[in-house]
Amino acid sequence: MAADTSLRPINVIVISSEGDPSYWKHLQGLPNCKLKVVPHLLQERINSQQSQVFKSCEVEGYAPQIIVLASPSKSILTEHLFIIRSHPKLALAPVLALTPLTELGPARRLADKVSPPTLSAADLYSQILALAKLTSELENFSPVGDNDDISLRRLINLLRFLHSRQNMKLSPDREKDSPCGYVYPLAAALLDAPQNQGPASLEDLEVQGFLTGRLQDRIHLCPQCEHYQINFREVCPRCRIPHIQLHHNIHHYRCSYVGPEIEFQRPYNQRAQTHDQWNLVCPKCMKKLKDIGVDYDRPSTSYVCFRCSEVFLEPTVNCLCMNCGGDFSTDKAKLQDIKIYSLTAAGSEVAEQGLGNYKLTDPDICNGLLPFEIFTNIFHIQFGISRRSNRPLCLASLTWENVSSQGSSGGNDQGRWLMKLGAGLRENLRGHDAITLLDQSELLILSPETNKQEAGIALNRALKKSEELIPPGFRLQRALAELPREENKLSLLIQRLRFPNI
Ligand SMILES: [Zn+2]
Ligand SMILES: [Zn+2]
Ligand SMILES: [Zn+2]
User: Fold this and answer.
1) Ligand with an atom nearest the CA of residue 319
2) Residue 79 phi/psi, 5° resolution?
3) Of 140, 167, 194, which closes a domain?
4) Which-ligand-closest: CA of 281?
5) Which of the residue ranges 172-181, 345-354, 424-433 has the most confident prediction, judged by mean pLDDT?
6) What is the pLDDT of residue 39?
7) Considering every ligand atom, which ligand is closest to the CA of 220?
8) Helix, strand or coil for residue 367?
9) Which pLDDT tens digit goes with each residue over 461-479?
């Protein structure tokens, strides 16, 4: 096979089961490839600070070499994929796993390619070339300084990983050992979070506008321990035990008594085993019942509690947490949305350019509202994208219309009511719509990739669902502006929104 001389030599690191070249022997003869073989990275070596192996993998900036993981062991492959993806400098490296295994589980998402070691040399070479292309794409990312905050670097790695892999999506995998029942293995590795962690950090990135989520499932969590293992069962509404039974009611024509069948049942001999062998005797008049339709009928059904004998038409559904033993009603269960996340335009921008002057911090989310400073950061990023790509961006403002005439309502009150309303709206708007409270007197809502008409419809719908949060006597005044056609400074825009006639 002819080497493509226009290419630079491709640096390939092979991490292999020690002393066993059977899984990577083809690589030795590939043209244009500089092969370096390292014994496999054991966890203890990482822990004992033997960074030698990492040093040999690292290159300048964000242009890691191709890593080939060669092993027949699922646990070794899984462990090494996590080590590589959670290493801040190696996280983006193109990884080819050479293994006879056909099923790698969720760890499969961490490798760029999984191939059998029996691959022909020509096929192997074309896979190496495809990964080399990815390497040169990674080189285009502006470098992140060594001094940058490590968690910030990991967040940018996550965005860059998705961007460099053709806007790959972050999909959840079912995992019974995760508190919410799902895991995001790739995100957990890139962010160096516990492997059984749910979507918490991805939700933060959605609120900040860098990811957008599409609902995949909705989980009920225990309100005490936030665990998904809940037993939903029908219980007695009075004493709340599940020992209840559905019975037909019997109406005895002769004396008009109505009661559950169990009250009528008498065994007609000592060895009676089934209900067919029971007589029906009216508990009120003690007459034996003969034929349905002639002297009695079954007009309805009801439940009877075995403990407290309560008779009721509908049982209550109640939850028992199998993790902490908490007992609670269904409306107390906490709902957790499980989504498939993908990059927004702002996420792609940050992947390419880094954050520049903008700060990406853990949002100090108060009732889902963003601190004004973070809101402003997001606005600037989204505004830049909107202007360059001519995509719509909407900013809405909500204030109390007649608040000055509310003699009894001071400024604190209007701010408090607005914050409550904002939290209600947060629940009913899209995850990547950003909301902030300005000066305790105005809610601002930023909706990326949304025109004025769509934003208006979404806002109306969310307001309708939050109606009860508008106190009596208060009326909302709203203003909407669509970018990039309108003002280009956030401060001016806010003024415009407040004073639409200026
Ligand atoms: Zn009961
Ligand atoms: Zn009777
Ligand atoms: Zn619990």
Assistant:
1) 3
2) -60, -45
3) 140
4) 2
5) 172-181
6) 67
7) 3
8) coil
9) 999 988 888 888 888 888 8
Distance 197 CA to ligand 3 centre (A): 17
Ligand showing the shortest atom-to-Cα distance for residue 179 = 3
CA of 446 to the centre of ligand 3 (A): 36
| Least-confidence region, from 33-47, 113-127, 188-202, 354-368 | 354-368
Report how far apart, in Å, the C-alpha atoms of 328 and of each of 77, 176, 232 are.
42, 22, 10
Question: Is 240 inside a domain boundary?
Answer: no
- Tell me how far the alpha carbon of residue 145 lies from the centroid of ligand 2, in angstroms: 89
Give the CATH number for residue 77: 3.40.50.280
Q: Are residues 395 and 310 in the same domain?
A: no
- Residue 315 Cα to ligand 2 midpoint, Å, equals 27
Tokens 């321990």 correspond to 225
- What confidence tens digit (pLDDT) does each residue in 141-180 have? 877 665 567 777 888 899 999 999 999 999 999 999 999 9
303 and 388 belong to one structural domain? no
308 and 369 housed in the same domain: no
Ligand nearest to C-alpha 243: 1
Both 44 and 118 in one domain: the answer is yes
pLDDT tens figures, 225-273: 999 999 999 999 999 999 999 988 999 999 999 988 888 988 665 555 5
Is there a single domain that holds both residue 390 and residue 460?
Answer: yes
pTM score of the predicted model: 0.74
What is the residue whose two structure tokens read 């967040």? 155
- Calculate how far, in angstroms, residue 296's C-alpha sits from the geometric centre of ligand 2: 9
Ligand nearest to the CA of 325: 3
Ligand sitting nearest the alpha carbon of 288: 2
Ligand in nearest proximity to the CA of 237: 1
Residues 375 and 291 in one domain: no
Query: What DSSP string describes 222-280?
Result: -TTT--S-EEEEEE-TTT--S-EEEEEEEEETTT--EEEGGGTEEESSTT--SGGGEEE
388 and 267 in a common domain: no
> Has residue 339 been placed in a domain?
no
| Distance from residue 265's CA to the centre of ligand 2 (Å) | 13
Do residues 374 and 301 share a domain? no
**Domain tally, the chain:** 3
- Tokens found for residue 368: 């889902």
Q: How far does residue 319's CA lie from ligand 3's centre (Å)?
A: 10
Range of the domain at 282: 245-314
Please tell me the distance from the alpha carbon of residue 255 to that of residue 281, in angstroms, as a whole number: 12
Q: How far is the CA of 310 from the centre of ligand 2 (A)?
A: 21
- Choose the final residue of a domain: 76, 111, 140: 140
The span from the CA of 70 to the CA of 96, in Å, is: 8
